[in-house]
Specification:
This protein is α+β, with helices and mostly antiparallel strands and 84 residues long. The protein is built from four helices and five strands, in the order E-H-E-H-H-E-E-H-E. A three-stranded antiparallel sheet has the order 2-4-3. A two-stranded antiparallel ribbon has the order 1-5. Helix 1 crosses helix 3. The chain is globular. The protein starts with 6 loop residues before the first strand and ends with a strand.
Length: 84
Amino acid sequence: MSEHPTITMSDDKLSCEATAILLRMLNFPDTDYHTAEELCPFFENDSLKTIRNALNELYDAGYLWRIGETYMVNKFRITQMKLA
């Protein structure tokens, strides 16, 4: 069993890419803010364009905040997610 609970979510409106990026940012929080370029090594099979599109999707849905090119988890939305 993991030391830390895992955050899960069920938002059928998000793409698989956006869901994966959000769960990565929530469950492996070395930091909860990243640029698209910093996330590329975690998703080697996806292009930078795909990651940017997913980050923008999360921003538009209210899961992330953005300052310049840096995206941060909107911690107010975490209360709407489930711990597994």
